[in-house]
Write the structure tokens for this entry.
Amino acid sequence: MWKLTKVAAVAAALAAAVAAHAGEVEVLHYWTSGGEAKSAAELKKMMQAKGHTWRDFAVAGGGGDSAMTVLKSRVISGNPPSAAQVKGPAIQEWASEGVLGNMDALAKSEKWDEALPKVVADVMKYKGNYVAAPVNVHRVNWIWASSDALKKAGVAAMPKTWDEFFAAADKLKAAGLIPVAHGGQNWQDFTTFESVVLGVGGPKFYQDALVKLDDKALTSDTMKKSLETFRRIKTYTDPGAPGRDWNLATAMLIQGKAGFQLMGDWAKGEFIAAGKAPGKDFMCAAAPGTANAFTFNVDSFILFKLKDAAAQKAQSDLASAIMSPGFQEVFNLNKGSIPVRAGQSMDKFDDCAKASAKDFADTAKSGGLVPSVAHGMAIAPATEGAIKDAVSQFWNDDKVSVADAMKKIATAAKTK
Ligand code: BGC
């Protein structure tokens, strides 16, 4: 009996210790599709295990445009959440407003500088101080395929070039299938567009045109060829594409109705959540012509300055959980991405993820590693928005000529 009392006393003391530090984390994110929600739930579980309360601030909308609008209004009204899913140069913009906290003490004690590739660590810092924590590395330049659809159409292998892609797309069409599942937001158009630019022009051209926004590259013959290829892809999409969410496009592959989707590896999260197996039910390959390149997209959370001590502790525990090897593994197994920590074991991951990890390391050495523009990793948000609109206008309106589109994109690139 005395033993039980003692156990109960210890448990009560422990609970009190947890409670003394227990706080609330309000986390803004846009992970609302099947695979995304399963991944986000892992973070919630970890925070709850540490005794904190998780307040879910999910704003639906792939790519996060709606979430960013909501976040701005919350911060302007002086009531920021603890953390928000923000990435790339937008991190610097938020930090320059003076609203983010300094996570250096935690980063130092957990050796984040050693755990993260420098290209990632630099993006997480503002003026040398950590203001954000990264969760993963998504690869954007993927092409996904439905094994059933390919089999029905007699397509034997994943296309390695754009010519092979169009030949396969013709076979899918002839078999009465939708060759390309596409959706209807400008970030989906640009996800396809940047893979085409990378495949047609290679990594150096991609950097010049879409990252450095060099006028000569933007108005070059290679850009012309990219736009022509991009427009040709549209002829293989179905009339239901406008307005469609990306995960519903993935569902068309899962159901065997469509052959291909050009999308980042969050699409794999959807296949996995639907119980499908890579290499069997669905296939992954680098987008045509991009085998030696890697467009990276690192999801991360910016951490806001908070006043309340318990909330600060909860926020620090959140950042620590995000960076922990255990979380990096379980989250990324669900999300379709790979861990961002260097040297993390890939044993439990599938072949698509293993290929991604290898290509991430190889392209970092070869120069083929480039930031995704479609996913906010490369250029200032205002410029990115203007270019995306010009590209989507071209995609949506067949009356806009390639020459006009080139001019419009080059003009949009000057937006500050
Ligand atoms: C994000 C992913 C997300 C996808 C669709 C991308 O920009 O990086 O985490 O799954 O958008 O919403």
Observations:
- Residues 1 and 7 are 10 Å apart (CA to CA).
- The pocket of beta-D-glucopyranose is lined by residues 30, 36, 62-64, 138, 246, 266, 297, 299, 375 (CB under 6 Å).
- The radius of gyration is 22 Å.
- The longest strand covers residues 24-29.
